[in-house]
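Q: What would this complex look like in 3D?
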Amino acid sequence: MKVGYLGPEGSFSYGVAAANFRQKDLQAFHTIFDCLEAVESGQLTKAVVPIENSYEGTVHDTLDFLYHQGSLYVEKEMVMPIHHCLAVHPEMAAQSTHLTGIYSHPQALSQTKRYLHEHHKKIPQTVVESTAKSAQYVALHGQKEAVAAICSEQAAELFGLSIIAREIEDSPDNQTRFWVVSKKKNLTSQKDLKKMSVCLTLTSDHPGTLHQSLAAFSWRNINLSKIESRPLKTQLGFYFFLLDIVIDCPISLIELAFEEIHLLNGRIKELGAYPIKIIK
Amino acid sequence: MKVGYLGPEGSFSYGVAAANFRQKDLQAFHTIFDCLEAVESGQLTKAVVPIENSYEGTVHDTLDFLYHQGSLYVEKEMVMPIHHCLAVHPEMAAQSTHLTGIYSHPQALSQTKRYLHEHHKKIPQTVVESTAKSAQYVALHGQKEAVAAICSEQAAELFGLSIIAREIEDSPDNQTRFWVVSKKKNLTSQKDLKKMSVCLTLTSDHPGTLHQSLAAFSWRNINLSKIESRPLKTQLGFYFFLLDIVIDCPISLIELAFEEIHLLNGRIKELGAYPIKIIK
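A: Here is my prediction, written as structure tokens for the whole assembly.
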């Protein structure tokens, strides 16, 4: 078995992947796109990718791939608390008040926006592919330049950096949902399936089309824990919707709602039904 | 009058601002946050900010500020076609097949993802605050390093760069909606108001709460051109919704729907009603 994740070692995706699979089966990828494409092509058995952060919202690269390119299914969701730290090269620890650059993944920069605005307002920010990559960069170049990484404490330790500020995320309840995806659909008879995610595309555009589709869930007392629109990438004003459906009723009832939506000219793309694991 | 925009000169926001206001009234800002905060504090009269791109979706910095921090109103929407080009320093034009780095704004990198994946897959990407800033960077550093900017042709010309590829955006219908915001609310009697945007927060969480709120619009035949959820930034699973309402009925009817939603324990924050101008 081969399991891909958004690398390098020390990334948050790595943390989730390592908690679920054997170290020797793991393989790091540079981008979410490349990682998911490797599952699609059969090069990987599974992939561990982020889908949503409590502060920054949906990870568009993941959702857009699953809707537009993929024929993949979610087999498990894992929710992990996210703590960021600011780390420098150990030889720069004394000059950490005079930083010349801050490196990180865009979502980490965004999740620490208020902290950076208050403490490092004028420092140029550079985006790299992952938080662990920023730690790696600082380990390699941080001896000469006073650059800092925003990454997990695990990554800072892995690359031998000095942590100059801990838990710098703006929201104390910062969490990220990760999905394990594969080409295999979970059997709907499994008792521990907690949620189902689907993409809904509406093919007509009269007032209340979305409302009508939601009615198919609402009158059956089926609860949606999330509804989000994303552009169809054709032109302004055309969207698909991600729906997260709570499974607290027979799945066949949910499937009847899909059937009804289909008859109303809505299109449902199933991303899968899955259990949820909370990582402490 | 002072009008802020996401600078520097040559940015797409600049293009929109310059088409609507006098050159001498314009002032460039480094970030959307700083620009909107300057209107909030009274330092600026208005600001021109992007709100949505047809390919990449909502500009979260703008929406999150208007929902969480702002007491600002949208007074006008402008829709502009977006074309990106790849530009290098004129002395590097001959070596443009051996780029060492590509600089741009995250949305521009995202809007040209497929092009970059096909033509410049392994080239490191660096994010800067705006597309024009990337052109400026290449003008300053592109003589020694083979770096390229993704920016408007206008910006490439402004900074004296050589364009090596035109219209590299993945979607041929790439458009961006810009909002002019100020502290003043448009009068609802204006005849040319085309759309109204509001943020809806649901205070209860039983199945169908959103469906119930949408019913207030649906049974009145009020059309929503967009509905999008964004995290409340508290914890996973809590959202507010951006609703774009088409004004093709008396505004008082829309206000009755708001009143009904309010009685159902929903909270509406009005972002304003506004005319729409399409820029060719």
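A: To summarize the key features: Residues 201 and 240 of chain A are 5 Å apart (CA to CA). Chain A touches chain B through 49 residues (CB under 8 Å).
Q: Very helpful, thank you.
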